Structures are given as structure tokens and as C-alpha cells.
């Protein structure tokens, strides 16, 4: 089983910090689960324009392949102007929807206002519903105040949510991987 953590931004680092925290937590409680990080900052993704996935540049094909081969996901986005990043939306558009079908997703968001957590409820969860993915009931929202001056996540409540999300992702993936689905 492989959990793919996706940092859905090409700017900043707080989202990456939280995604890594979830991956580290999952590794500590379930060392048998392979984890991988996909930091979109490291790839030159092309804009989705309806081409077949094999017709995009090498970075775009590699990202689509990495996502396709994962068993479950934790996906993070900073919130800008009350929405997920354009690069994450583009990523969702690039990946064929059936890739996510019957797979477990967990969400992370970071932002500068305490109301931005609503983007998880109002944007990310509906996208997962469209994909027919299963969504972990827990999610992590981290405000800029939850980090110290070294950009470390320090808020105890947020760190507890990280643990809960990691546990739920592993539990749900294990339970649902035993279920047979008609594709």
C-alpha cells in the first residue's frame, strides 16, 4: 500500500510542512505502508487542454503516473482568495477521474484566516465526491499562527488533527481495500 502526499502549490512552504507531518505520522504508526511526497513545486506541469495524458511533457506525464499508481492520498493546498490553488485544480483536471474512484483521500489546507477551512468542505470534498473517492472525516487546517518563526507546526490541536488524519487514512484504506468494486 502506498500513500501519496500531494503539496498542491508552487509557492510557500506551510502546506508542504503539514503534508510531510501527516506522512511522517503515518510512517511512525504504520511502517509497513509506503509513503511518497509529490511536491508540485518540483514539476513543470502543463495546463490541461484535453489532450491524452501521454501527449503532455515528461513532468506532467510523470505526475499523472505517480498519482495513478498510488493507493490513497493526502492532498494539501494553501487557500488563496477563498479557493484552492490553480495548480491543484489543474492537477485534478489532468488526472483521469477514474484514477481516484474508490480510493481514500484526506485533505489539508493552510491559510491566513480562520474561515478558510471552509474550502475543504465546500471545494475539496465535492471534488472528491465527483471522483467517487472516499474522504476521511478528519482534515487538517493550519493557520499561519499555528507555525513558529522557523516554519514548524507547533499548535497542539493541529498536531492532534495530523495524528487523527493519519490514523483515519490508514484505517479507511485498509478497510476499503478489502472491498470488491465493479469498475
From TrEMBL:
Q: Tell me yes or no: is Flavoprotein among this UniProt entry's keywords.
A: yes
* Entry keywords, A to Z: Flavoprotein, FMN, Oxidoreductase
Q: Which InterPro entries match?
A: Flavoprotein-like_sf, FMN_Rdtase-like_dom, NAD(P)H-dep_FMN_reductase
Task: Kindly indicate whether the keyword Cell division belongs to this entry.
Answer: no
Enumerate the SUPFAM superfamilies for this protein: Flavoproteins (SSF52218)
PANTHER family according to UniProt: FMN REDUCTASE (NADPH) (PTHR43408:SF2)
What is the recorded name of this protein? NADH-dependent FMN reductase
What organism is the protein native to? Cytobacillus kochii
Amino acid at each position: 500500500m502506498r500513500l501519496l502526499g500531494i503539496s498542491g502549490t508552487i509557492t510557500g512552504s506551510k502546506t508542504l510542512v503539514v503534508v510531510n507531518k501527516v506522512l511522517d505520522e503515518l510512517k511512525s504508526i504504520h511502517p509497513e505502508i509506503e509513503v511518497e511526497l509529490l511536491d508540485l513545486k518540483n514539476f513543470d506541469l502543463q495546463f490541461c487542454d484535453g489532450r491524452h495524458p501521454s501527449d503532455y511533457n515528461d513532468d506532467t506525464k510523470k505526475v499523472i503516473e505517480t498519482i495513478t499508481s498510488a493507493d490513497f492520498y493526502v492532498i494539501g493546498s494553501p487557500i488563496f482568495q477563498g479557493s484552492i490553488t490553480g495548480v491543484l485544480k489543474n492537477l485534478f483536471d489532468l488526472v483521469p477521474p477514474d484514477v481516484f474512484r474508490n480510493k481514500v483521500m484526506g485533505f489539508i489546507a493552510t491559510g491566513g484566516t480562520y474561515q478558510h477551512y471552509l474550502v475543504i468542505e465546500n471545494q475539496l470534498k465535492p471534488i472528491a465526491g465527483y471522483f467517487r473517492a472516499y474522504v476521511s472525516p478528519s482534515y487538517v487546517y493550519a493557520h499561519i499562527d499555528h507555525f513558529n518563526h522557523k516554519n514548524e507546526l507547533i499548535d497542539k490541536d493541529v498536531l492532534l488533527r495530523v495524528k487523527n488524519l493519519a490514523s483515519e487514512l490508514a484505517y479507511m484504506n485498509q478497510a476499503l481495500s478489502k472491498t470488491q468494486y465493479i469498475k
